[in-house]
Amino acid sequence: MRTLHINTENQTITETDSNGLADEQAAVGGNIESAHHFENGVDRIMVNEDGLFSLPQDTGWFFVDGAFNPFKGNGIVVGVNENTGDTIDAKISLEDLKGQVRFMSAFEVTMMAQARRASATS
């Protein structure tokens, strides 16, 4: 199955081949959860569901256009069949995904959070 791996350590996004849940969990370093739905209605970003609490403090982050918050650690993009819930080939192109992802440091995430708090209280 065609997937796209977002690697925050190397700050790369690569097309990968996944044989299912075990490969997806290995890519993110733990149990996965759906973190972002793309507008195409098929693709989802899966991340480590415990990443905020279990990954080391210096772990990298990434932000995807259209998402509410950045994500800590690695991500994997899979397609999801809405009728069955089964994972299928990701539809987004590698180039399109690269154009939507920004890698971030913990400091940049903190600055984003502070800016949001300041604008919410203004």
Architecture overview:
Strands 1, 2, 3, 4, 7 and 8 form a 6-stranded antiparallel beta sheet that branches. A 3-stranded antiparallel beta sheet has the order 6-5-9. It starts with a strand and ends with a helix. The longest helix has 16 residues. By secondary structure, it is α+β, with helices and mostly antiparallel strands. It has 4 helices and 9 strands. 29% of the residues lie in helices and 34% in strands.
Comma- or semicolon-separated keywords:
122 residues, alpha+beta, six-stranded antiparallel sheet, 4 helices, 9 strands, globular
Topology:
Blueprint: E1 2-7, E2 12-17, H1 21-28, E3 32-37, E4 43-48, H2 51-54, E5 61-64, E6 71-72, E7 75-80, E8 87-88, H3 94-100, E9 101-104, H4 106-121
Antiparallel strand pairs: 1-2, 1-7, 3-4, 4-7, 5-6, 5-9, 7-8
